[in-house]
């Protein structure tokens, strides 16, 4: 879009449409085609007023043959002397008040030269204002500069004075125009005192801004669920694949760009903290094991003392053998420092 706008502003648009009568034609073979050059005139009023044109007409097909049926395949009709044509093309003025025009389209009009119609040239111009609009008795006048590109040898800017009625519908737009504003206009082209004028038929400003807000609601979207989707063609599948790849690349680029070095540092710190907690947990486990071992040694010492007491009581039992009564025997309980009484009747 920017490249297109740049080309429009630097090369600009100067298109002309009119009816011409061919005076002369010369054919020249060039670049696998035929370049026609010559002189033509147009009738611009009811009197004897006329405009002179020096034209060039490039044919991309072989030279014209009046007996050939292939002439209908020409994108541009070959010009013939003493014929009338409706033409349009790019133009630039010359110092002798004639107009150089590179014809892009032409249509043959089957009329006699005595009946050539009156038609003032209509032009489309894209250019920059060189000043402010001036109001006089004849109306508004706004000067603009255009720079057409016909060829590498015909790339010369020129001035055109835009004219408009004092109470015309574009008077507000003309008064708002500032110096170096880019404008596009359509109007009737004429010369007066060797100066170029254009009576405005259409006028608008050209902005370099691009509006990306798209609020268009397509009418067929509401019926998307009412019919079965038709199979996609190979071209549609190719387009869908390209869009999918672009979306994937964009998502990967976004995820990589959102990574923060601080997050990496935080992750590293978290890992160190987990290791520290693990080491502390192992130390506590070791201390608990040491306490259990000490308690077990105390219990073993108590058991040994109990066994000694049992031995002494056995000796007393032997001495009291034969006596009637109740025998109380103390048995050790393994793993505890208590004694259990055993009663014998």
TrEMBL record:
Superkingdom as given in the UniProt entry: Eukaryota
Ranges of Acidic residues composition bias in the record: 297-307
Comp. bias intervals (Basic residues): 335-345
Region described as Disordered: spans on this chain: 246-270, 283-345
Basic and acidic residues biased stretches: 284-296
Biased composition (Low complexity): 246-259
Record protein name field: Uncharacterized protein
């Amino acid at each position: 879009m920017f490249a297109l706008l740049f080309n429009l502003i630097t090369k600009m648009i100067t298109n002309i449409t009119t009816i011409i009568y061919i005076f002369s034609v010369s054919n020249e073979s060039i670049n696998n085609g035929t370049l026609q050059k010559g002189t033509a005139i147009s009738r611009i009023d009811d009197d004897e007023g006329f405009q002179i044109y020096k034209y060039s007409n490039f044919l991309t097909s072989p030279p014209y043959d009046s007996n050939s049926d292939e002439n209908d395949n020409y994108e541009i009709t070959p010009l013939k002397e003493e014929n009338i044509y409706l033409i349009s093309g790019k133009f630039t003025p010359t110092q002798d008040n004639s107009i150089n025009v590179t014809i892009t389209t032409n249509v043959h009009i089957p009329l006699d030269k005595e009946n050539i119609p009156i038609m003032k040239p209509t032009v489309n111009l894209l250019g920059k204002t060189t000043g402010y609009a001036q109001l006089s008795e004849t109306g508004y006048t706004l000067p603009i500069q255009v720079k057409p590109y016909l060829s590498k040898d015909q790339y010369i800017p020129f001035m055109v004075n835009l004219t408009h009625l004092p109470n015309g519908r574009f008077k507000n737009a003309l008064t708002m125009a500032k110096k170096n504003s880019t404008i596009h206009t359509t109007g009737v082209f004429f010369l007066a005192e060797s100066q170029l004028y254009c009576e405005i038929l259409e006028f608008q400003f050209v902005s370099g801004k691009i509006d990306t807000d798209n609020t268009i609601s397509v009418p067929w979207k509401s019926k998307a669920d009412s019919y079965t989707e038709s199979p996609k063609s190979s071209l549609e599948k190719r387009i869908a694949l390209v869009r999918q790849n672009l979306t994937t690349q964009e998502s990967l680029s976004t995820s990589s760009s959102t990574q923060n070095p601080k997050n990496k540092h935080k992750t590293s710190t978290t890992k160190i903290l987990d290791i520290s907690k693990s080491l502390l947990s192992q130390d506590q486990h070791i201390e608990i094991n040491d306490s259990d071992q000490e308690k077990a040694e105390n219990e073993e010492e108590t058991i040994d003392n109990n066994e000694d007491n049992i031995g002494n009581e056995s000796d007393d039992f032997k001495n009291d053998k034969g006596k009637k009564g109740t025998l109380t025997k103390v048995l050790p309980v393994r793993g505890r420092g208590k004694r259990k009484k055993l009663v014998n009747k």
